[in-house]
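Inverse folding, one chain.
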């Protein structure tokens, strides 16, 4: 079986993230979405909430497994026999950072990284921007899937 992982914090998952996961799910037999846990950061959504939202948003793909992980991504990959990491690139600035990470991960464990260019519609999109716009009551309905829109409205006490 061809397996890959799409790692991230996904706080929350956006349409840009979903585009990358959907495209990866067409290339691989199983795509793991690893919600990476950073104990030093307090997210808007708990890890459990993020996992639930991602599962609701990716259920139709049929080959996506969602779980959390704390530690090095290469250890996650080793434990699950995953040879490839899939990352979306929005701009050249993403590439600079992601290339360093890809080279480090390959040097540590031999895992490869596949870069998928983001759909231009989502080239500006990030979870932090979504959170900020949503906090101020801006319309994010075109940036996130419906379950996330509803969850943000509930969490922030705004109308979706």
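Residues assigned per position:
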């Amino acid at each position: 079986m061809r397996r890959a992982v799409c790692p991230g914090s996904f706080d929350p998952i956006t349409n840009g993230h979903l585009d990358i996961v959907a495209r990866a799910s067409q290339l691989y037999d199983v795509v793991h979405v690893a919600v990476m846990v950073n104990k030093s950061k307090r997210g808007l959504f708990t890890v459990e909430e993020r996992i639930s939202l991602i599962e609701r948003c990716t259920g139709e793909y049929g080959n996506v497994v969602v779980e959390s992980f704390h530690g090095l991504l290469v250890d996650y990959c080793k434990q699950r026999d995953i040879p490839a990491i899939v990352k979306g690139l929005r701009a050249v600035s993403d590439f600079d950072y992601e290339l360093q990470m890809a080279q480090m991960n390959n040097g540590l464990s031999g895992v490869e990284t596949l870069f998928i260019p983001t759909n231009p519609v989502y080239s500006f999109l990030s979870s932090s921007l979504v959170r900020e716009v949503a906090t101020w009551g801006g319309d994010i309905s075109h940036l996130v899937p419906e379950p996330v829109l509803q969850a943000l409205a509930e969490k922030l006490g705004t109308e979706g």
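The helical segments are 15-27, 47-58, 73-80, 92-109, 127-135, 146-156. The radius of gyration is 15 Å.
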